[in-house]
Amino acid sequence: MPTLKEQFWDPIAGFGVTFRTMFKKVVTEQYPFDKKPTAPRFHGRHQLNRWPDGLEKCIGCELCAWACPADAIYVEGASNSDADGERYSPGERYGRVYQINYLRCILCGLCIEACPTRALTMTNEYELADNNRADLIYEKSDLLAPLLPGMEQPPHAMLLGDDEGDYYRGSFGSRQQSGDTHDRHESEG
């Protein structure tokens, strides 16, 4: 048989939380019409970055897939072919197939830390919901950064350096400027 305290005081104490919050000001988020900015280092949707000439930074090493605790990343590497003009990255390999399954991804950022070329980064985009499971498996075309002015759609030859070392050392800036100077002197002479 319940005690007097259990019969009368416990229900009143339980509703005490309800009564205390009934008269507080209601805070309503106006999402999706009023979106709040995210923190600068927010872990959102992934992005595959490009070099300034448009070549992909991903070398198909699959380290991001190995680092992923949720097994959400699938990478299939392939070799670049200079003979056929099929160069997608400055290295000898590139990521031919790149998929991230956002049904599994926990947005932890371990894949970002594992990437040796800083090809994979995370954006501030957080609206990843969809009504179809198949649309939450992002392909390489969905993840690649857009081409900016001055970039060329791969495949093409290395435009910023003679070898991949120029790209990875970042020495393509001085080469590009000296090449521009050389071109100006040729056009003047």
Brief write-up:
30% of the residues lie in helices and 13% in strands. It is α+β, with helices and mostly antiparallel strands and 189 residues long.
How is this fold's topology laid out?
Blueprint: H1 4-22, E1 46-48, H2 63-67, E2 73-79, E3 93-101, H3 110-114, E4 120-122, E5 137-138, H4 140-143, H5 164-169, H6 172-188
Antiparallel strand pairs: 1-4, 2-3, 3-5
Count the strands? 5
Shape: elongated
% residues in beta strands: 5-15%
Q: Considering DSSP H and I runs of 4 or more, what fraction of the residues is helical?
A: 25-40%
- How far apart the termini lie comes to 107 Å
Structure characteristics:
single chain; 189 residues; alpha+beta; Alpha-Beta Plaits; three-stranded antiparallel sheet; 6 helices; 30% helix; elongated; disordered C terminus
What would you say this structure looks like, in words?
The chain is an alpha+beta fold. The protein has a domain at 50-158: 2-Layer Sandwich (Alpha-Beta Plaits). It contains 6 helices and 5 strands, in the order H-E-H-E-E-H-E-E-H-H-H. The protein has helices spanning 4-22, 63-67, 110-114, 140-143, 164-169, 172-188, and strands at 46-48, 73-79, 93-101, 120-122, 137-138. A 3-stranded antiparallel beta sheet has the order 2-3-5. The chain has a two-stranded antiparallel ribbon with strand order 1-4. The chain is elongated, with a radius of gyration of 26 Å. 16% of the residues are buried. The model is unreliable at 174-189 (pLDDT under 50).
